[in-house]
Write a structure and sequence with these properties.
Elements: H1 15-18, E1 26-32, E2 35-41, H2 46-60, H3 64-75
Antiparallel strand pairs: 1-2
């Protein structure tokens, strides 16, 4: 399949390709051996990220005091 670069350096991805990666709006772009590589990236909203962090903190058994002490330690360095 062909894709053409516009004068504003934009490329439209072919529909047949986009249909295979639904719910993807962002791509990590890299250049490897002269080939452009696009990797789908799913951007996580801040609310979901915060929930994930809080779950991990609970799983580790950390308390609010532990977090406050860690922040104090980091800021005093």
């Amino acid at each position: 399949m062909l894709a053409k670069k516009t004068v504003k350096n934009q490329i439209t991805l072919p529909k047949a390709i986009v249909d295979k990666i639904p719910d993807t709006d962002y791509f990590e772009v890299s250049l490897q051996k002269g080939e452009i590589i696009l990797k789908p990236v799913h951007i996580e909203g801040s609310t979901a990220r915060l929930r994930r962090i809080r779950r991990k903190i609970r799983a580790l058994g950390l308390t609010e005091t532990d977090i406050e002490e860690a922040i104090h330690w980091a800021r005093s360095r």
